[in-house]
Amino acid sequence: METRQFEPIVEMKNVGLAYGDNPPVLSNINFAFRRGSIHFLTGKSGAGKTSLLSMLYLAQKPTEGTLKVFGNNVAMTDRDTLAFLRRRIGVVFQDFRLLEHLSVFDNVALPLRLRGMKEKEIKKRVIELLAWVELSDNMYAKSSDISGGEKQRAAIARAVINRPEILLADEPTGNVDSEIAVKLMKLFAELNRLGTTVIIATHSNELMERYNYPRLRLEGGKLSYVK
After folding, report:
1. What value does the mean pLDDT of the chain take?
2. Quick one: pLDDT band at residue 1, thresholds 50, 70, 90?
3. Which of 133, 169, 192, 224 is most exposed, with the fewest beta carbons within 10 Å of its own?
4. Helix, strand, coil: what percent of the chain each, to 5?
């Protein structure tokens, strides 16, 4: 049990990613995220943050090097196992990816329903979390009918409702005001306190200065540790 605790939850050795015959988007990345850590991921637009997150989410495999997630070598892992591993990862996408024909409540409840949780427990958890992100008044509104900031909060609620082991957040505070941003960061910090490994991609210097978490920077396809 102790060995598992100190084993990296994500490990990258000489990892690179290229699309087709184009030059690599990412190259020679070496880093390990320990369980229960929290990091900011920063870099200019086009630096490869979204591509790196997509590999960590297991949406694509590296074109070179070794990526291990939960101790599994991604290149050697079959599709069904990858799908199972993805359920242990929460993701907040920049474009939200809500199912717009469903209500806010049903979007957030979806991961729990896929797990087969009883509706009574689902209702309790979803109502509690939607109150935290200040969406109680809109919980039964269709996702297509709410504002961009509300969609952002719904997407975050959906990502964390399952209490994932890894949370990947791509610009999670980009569409919300400063008061809500503080509340969301408190939510991430609480998840982290409970053991979730959290990686927050952001351009916001204000956010990074306010919350003094270690920073990783992507530049020219390379990943470096800032502090």
Report:
1. 91
2. very low
3. 224
4. 40, 25, 35
For residue range 48-88, list pLDDT tens digits in order.
888 999 999 999 999 999 999 999 999 999 999 999 999 99
Task: Report which residue type is found at 80.
Answer: D
Q: Using CA atoms, how far apart are residues 133 and 116, in angstroms rounded to an integer?
A: 24
Q: What pLDDT band is residue 2 in, cutting at 50, 70 and 90? A: very low
Parallel, antiparallel or unpaired: strands 26-34 and 8-17: antiparallel
pTM (two decimals): 0.90
| Residue 4: predicted pLDDT | 53
Closest to 40 measured CA to CA, from 176, 170, 175, 160 = 170
What are the beta bridge partners of residue 168?
91, 199
SS3 assignment, position 110: helix
The amino acid present at 132, given as its one-letter code, is: W
